[in-house]
Amino acid sequence: xxxKLIIFDLDGTLLNTIADLAGSVNFCLTQMGFPTHSLESYxxxxxxxxxxxxxxxxxxxxxxxxxxxxxxxxxxxxxxxxNTVSSSPYPGITDLLSSLQEMGYLIAVAxxxxxxxxxxxxxxxxxxxxxxxxxGQRENIAVKPDPQIVxxxxxxxxxxxxxxxxxIGDSGVDMKTANNSGVDSCGVTxxxxxxxxxxxxxxxHIVDNPIEILKIIA
Length: 218
What we know:
Blueprint: E1 5-8, E2 15-16, H1 18-32, H2 42-45, H3 50-57, H4 65-82, E3 88-89, H5 93-102, E4 106-114, H6 115-125, E5 133-137, H7 148-157, E6 165-169, H8 172-181, E7 184-188, H9 195-200, E8 205-207, H10 211-217
Parallel strand pairs: 1-4, 1-6, 4-5, 6-7, 7-8
Antiparallel strand pairs: 2-3
Helix pairs in contact: 1-4
């Protein structure tokens, strides 16, 4: 069935944010006297929200509640002021979004990045796109792969037929989110994870270039 609503993950799908995330986490780790990590390491740390990102970054023996609370506060302050330093849309993404908008598709964002930063980055990098819904991690709402964020978008838009929805992301978490919510999934290979992870988590479609998405939904 023809799609009406296209839901995108943000980090690793629309935007390459890994350098700014790594920069802020490494800043906090240095301030706390902990060892830092390589940029490549963060590809496997991200995907489950800020809490998990920081937990994975802190040395195992230092993951006490008070330590994680302190580094979280420090991270939020630093990242809020440094999340547009090196981040950028992946090649072809802006054109893809513009094409989808011109073709009349509804476009939404479902991210595990906290809501404030999700809204800021979407507005900053895609000011010309009229997203119908932009949701990030919100207080007391389970993060992906829990399907609640997709349900909230569906409810806000008013679409009742899930076959009219395509969820696009770069990770196994995203594929699980789509499958858990009962919508079609599309994995992208230009993000933080690899094709094998997308296959393992039963991606219905896998694309290597944004233009391929237009072929899927046609």
